[in-house]
Predict the 3D structure of the following.
Amino acid sequence: MVAAGTAKIEKSARQYRADFPILGQMMNGRKLAFLDTAASAQKPKIVIDSMSSVYSTGYANIHRGVYRISQELTTAFEEVRQKVADFIGAPGARNIVFTRNSTEAINLVAQSWGRTHLQKGDEVILSAMEHHANIVPWQLLQAQIGIEIKVIPVLDDGTLDYEAYQSLLSPRTKMVGVVHISNAFGVRNNISKIIKLSRDFNPKIKVLIDGSQGVVHSPVNVIALDADFYVFTGHKLYGPTGIGALYGKYEALESMPPYQGGGDMIERVSFSGSTFREPPHRFEAGTPPIAEVIGLGAAIDYVREIGFDFIQKREENLLAYGNKKLKEISGLKVFGDVSDKAGIFSFTIENMHPSDIGMVLDQCGVAVRAGHHCCMPLLERFGLDATVRASLGLYSNEEDIDALVEGLHKARELFQ
Ligand SMILES: Cc1ncc(COP(=O)(O)O)c(C=O)c1O
């Protein structure tokens, strides 16, 4: 763990940045300033090497092989399940289902838990700041079985309206799905409060937390939170694409039928019927993303070694620096400008479209996202179709923010 003194943090920040080979590159004649980590984080060498090592020295299919490399890789794969459990404070490895990403994890809950436990007229409450990944799976279920979807409004400062949430709860409420940290504005939701309010109203209500950004910016303990389901995706946590995780309380997982069928998830198959393994294996049909799981394990080790003390302190400093610098730009408005937020600046500039700003920034070697960030309902709430989003990772530094602000000045001149 790194102590949180400023000088130490700056030194460590330089060292950590050097762990990411891609950040040494030039882009359009400038040093690459990568400010799109909320979409997908860059990968440290240790993650890249861990996957390359699987393929070059120890690759085989897992779970079924009777020979050494298969068995060793099976052990390494299953160790990552325990690593994920430890990382989010889950009781054990059996609470962790490997999925392709957060999207698949939420679809799994909607289709397996939802189809089993919900009926026509039952209510699912979501927030207005959900990523489409935590909206559309519930809409598919709505079309299939006729559930109602209610929406927790967002206040003008970009935070959730907790009072309105309380008034939405009803005897028909069965599931609540809320994002831990908004990917669009960076606002951190008080998910403990959401869970407590739900429990106080009716302990049987299930709560699913979308932790896609949450695990990247803060330590998580699903037991302390008392979440029923918590999902995240590996590629935002400095790990590979194609791997994510669903945490579920075991009694909830046990009550759920398989989501997909195939090899690896069965006990016995015959044409008169098949039987399935216990969770989590029941939800993992087919050959899993083996090297990706190993890469996720390396990413978790990497993040844990750096520690959230460092990550949070560094991000706080950069947020303060960025907020001050962005004020230099006339007509710039930041959305979700609250104190409890992660390293995400989402903004518009008067008389300029975010896509145009994004293109000018690209010319300056600055990579940002311009668009709806898969949160169309949230942007609509603010009368927007797009914002520019600059998002920080543990490798971000003041120079990246300086490059951003310089690029914005340039865009201002061009579109004056
Ligand atoms: C808050 C949030 N939820 C869900 C997702 C979906 O992640 P994935 O595409 O990896 O499933 C994202 C990705 O942008 C996100 O930021």
About this structure: Residues 68-87 form the longest helix (20 residues).
